[in-house]
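Run: sequence + zinc ion -> complex structure.
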Amino acid sequence: MVTDLDLALRNAVGLRKSNDIYVLTDDNSQKYCLPLVRQTLELADSHILCLPHGEEQKTLASVETIWQFLINQHATRRSLLLIVGGGVLTDMGGFAASTFKRGIPYVNIPTTLLAMVDAAQGGKTGFDYCGLKNEIGMFASPKDTIVYPPFLKTLPHEQLLSGYAEMLKHALIASPLELIHVLAFNLDDIDWEIFAELIQRSIDIKQYIVEQDTEETGLRKSLNFGHTVGHALEEYYLSHRPEPGNDRPAASPLTHGYAVMYGIVAELYLSVSKLSLPQQTLTQVAHFMTEHYGKPVCPCKDYSVLIDLMRHDKKNNSDSEINFSLLRQVGNCRIDQHCSEQEITEALDFLFNL
Ligand SMILES: NC(=O)c1ccc[n+]([C@@H]2O[C@H](COP(=O)([O-])OP(=O)(O)OC[C@H]3O[C@@H](n4cnc5c(N)ncnc54)[C@H](O)[C@@H]3O)[C@@H](O)[C@H]2O)c1
Ligand SMILES: [Zn+2]
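>> structure
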């Protein structure tokens, strides 16, 4: 995390001239965050590509647009791509940079909470394909990631909550004390100093785990907690927009973090039933969810669609088993847990009937 954005940007760019700097952003980050970057970096001769915002843009077509932009503007292997935006851009831009001319350096400048604590950390890049989330991608680390919390001041509250779900996930897999801090933080009247500390600790948790297991063969799978159900919900909402329900938040399609929040509750239910996680944790987190995130809507008849989506999840080793990371206790995650359709159905029933 940086307090001096100017210094961090200058270090990241090094001796490169501005015409060797390529900037990828989206319309919102261009409007709200790029001016702060421009105050430091003389970007007059730089090449700026602004894409429309949104998960719907996380496609092969957008990746091609980035490659074509780099080709048309004569980028070389020494050029630097600065990615100023949320997780959609850091995922997609990181992939485009890492494959262009077999890889050019890129720097993440995350502007959403979700990207700061999660997407821009850990080197996973990619895009959605054939209706499946992040189906094509690779591990490719940025040269640097510059986390500057004041960017968050223009972020809509719903997007802040989206990132907060990943912070809650980090707390659940890290320690009971961190969970207390995250559940107690006042999201409706933010103390920015305390928030910056919470953000830094959340980044530390992710980085610690990623350092032990960069390519996700073991421990890193604990970061998938909440994501087996979460990703299925996210994909379901991308293709089956339910009728606007009374309780469903306005976002359509479901943001990644909202999907993860609902996935966390379903997977806490599975953790209670399969690994004897104390019920109290499920009760506390389910209450936090309904208070801040509302309730998701999905008719029973579509449970089979959700379970089918879980079957296609990248995290599975075979088509017949659905893989989960579940909690034995807060701070004690068990990876490679398999649940039956019956068990998953019960967890979905719990979630959708809260
Ligand atoms: N690579 C990973 O390890 C990883 C981890 C978690 C999530 N992800 C991915 O991240 C993506 C979600 O990221 P996201 O939630 O940042 O979504 P996003 O990039 O779509 O950003 C959310 C919205 O906020 C806007 N925005 C960004 N910064 C802003 C600012 N400072 N002020 C006002 N508006 C701003 C954006 O334009 C967009 O409309 C998903 O595609 C998910 O798969 C990746
Ligand atoms: Zn996530």
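>> summary
The pocket of nicotinamide-adenine-dinucleotide (ligand 1) is lined by residues 26, 28-29, 32-33, 53-55, 58, 85-89, 91, 111-112, 114-115, 118-119, 122, 124, 133-134, 151, 154-155, 159, 162, 255-256 (CB under 6 Å). The domain at 157-352 is CATH 1.20.1090.10 (Dehydroquinate synthase-like, alpha domain).
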